[in-house]
Amino acid sequence: MCEQVCRLHSDDVGVVAAALDLPGPVVDDSPDIAVLASPPPFARRLVLARWRNAFTDLTIELAGRGPSLAELERRFGPGVSVPMPHHGSAYRFRYDVAVAEAPWSCALFASFEDQDFLPYGGSTSTELTLRRDQV
Predict the structure, then answer these.
(1) Can you give the residue ranges of every domain in the chain?
(2) Sorting pLDDT into bands at 50, 70 and 90, what band is 115?
(3) What is the pTM of this model?
């Protein structure tokens, strides 16, 4: 999905969801948030965010175990730890994805809920956010 987000030209969240093969419909939750009415089996909730009517990111609240830290690092290289905004927040790692000649890049943020220990290779993600950025 990260590579597809990099290649998307549309800012319309419905078009973005269709391009990512996500089952519709997309329902407005607020001016800046749209949710997938029937998320796929791997997701408990799927949110598409906008800023100034333009698609910015896709957040997937995973229904089960997500990719492990080791799997993400094999696929995207070492992640960068994102500071926790407050005690009790999920640990997050950022992976930057770029596709040659694509109009966008994508930052993948993976959240890991275990707050007692730093995530290790076998830790599984609980939420993924794909954020579209300018190249």
Answers:
(1) 2-134
(2) low
(3) 0.90
